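I am writing to request your help with a piece of structural work I have in hand. Thank you for your consideration; the sequence and its tokens are set out here:
=====
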Amino acid sequence: MHRYRHALWPQIKDRLAKQPERLSIVRKMVELGIRVSEDARFYLGDVEISDTAIARAVNVDRRVVRSSAEQILQDAQLKTILSKLKPSGASLVDVAQELGYQVIVITADPHKPGVISVVTSILAEYGVVVRQALADDPDLTPEPKLTLVLQGTVPPEALVRARSVASVSSVTLR
């Protein structure tokens, strides 16, 4: 079985490997959930994002952004992927304390299954509710992390148990 045959980033990277500026534009699109529409406009949800704004964000000329949109629409595989992206929503991480939540950051082998399941089961045993789970894409992030925003007090023994999960290398309470 080819488990990672259809991984998102390798497909995109293969198509744009010789165009680093366009690759950086597409990386930002994937990171933020920006899609390209049939009329070659960029959208974050239902909000149109200007070529200039994207250009500033990735430090390229706006004309490169414009030509990237056109290239995406001309490539069936890129169009299929990049015309359907959506933002994943607002992160509660930076406002967790103000909301009375706790945050734990977990570093683990991103290719091993079950980390989210095992850690959230441990937390549930202590009555801790997961309000939000944010996982970095290992194809886009050199050191991917799983960040959990939690309601309830995380007891030290829950952290010890989470750290003992086989594929977990660290658990940090923020």
Q: What stands out?
A: Residues 8-82 form one domain. The longest strand covers residues 102-108. Residues 1-5 have pLDDT under 50 and may be disordered. Helices lie at 8-16, 20-32, 51-58, 62-74, 76-82, 96-99, 115-125, 156-163.
